[in-house]
Amino acid sequence: MTDQASTVTQPSPAETAPPAEGVLLTDNAAQKVKALLDQEGRDDLQLRISVQPGGCSGLRYQLFFDERNLDGDTVRDFGGVAVVVDRMSTPYLHGATIDFVDTIEKQGFTIDNPTATGSCACGDSFH
Questions:
Q1: Pairing label, strands 46-53, 24-25
Q2: CA distance linking residue 122 with residue 124, whole number of Å
C-alpha cells in the first residue's frame, strides 16, 4: 500500500455562494467595480443591475451605481461589492454572470445570460 497525500481544493467563495437572485459577479468584475468606486471616492454606492425595455431586441441591460434601496430589491455582497437587483429584473437575470474583460479587442462589462433567447447584432439588447 502506498502512502499518497491527497489534496483537497476548496472552491472560491464566488463558486459556492448562491447568486443574488440568480446573478453572479465574477472576481474580475468585482475588482473593476471596486476600482471605479474608489475613483468616485464614495463608499455608499452599490452596483445596480436591471433590465429595461429598449434596444432592437426588446430588452436592454443597465449597470449603474446607485445609493437607493427600493422595495423588493435583493442585495448580495461579492467581495465587498454590493450588487442590487430590483424585483422586476430578477426573472430576466436568473443565472446571469457579469464579468469584466480587458483585451486588445474589447474592454468592458459582459453579461452571459442563459435565459436570453436571442440578442441583436450590436449585443446591447436581448429577448
A1: unpaired
A2: 6
Q: Bridge-partner residues for 65, per DSSP?
A: 47
- Report yes or no: 66 and 80 within 8 Å, Cβ to Cβ: no
Evaluate whether 51 touches 62 at the Cβ level (below 8 Å): yes
Torsion of CA 12, 17, 19, 20, to 10 degrees: -120
Beta strand 81-85 pairing with 46-53: parallel
Of the pLDDT bands very low, low, confident and very high (cuts 50, 70, 90), residue 57 is low
- This prediction has a pTM of 0.73
* Nine-digit cell string for 88: 422586476
At 113, the pLDDT band (50, 70, 90 cuts) reads: confident
Q: How many other CB atoms are found less than 10 A from the CB of residue 85?
A: 26
Distance from C-alpha of 45 to C-alpha of 75, rounded to nearest angstrom: 12
- pLDDT one-digit tens code per residue, 64-79: 999 999 999 999 999 8
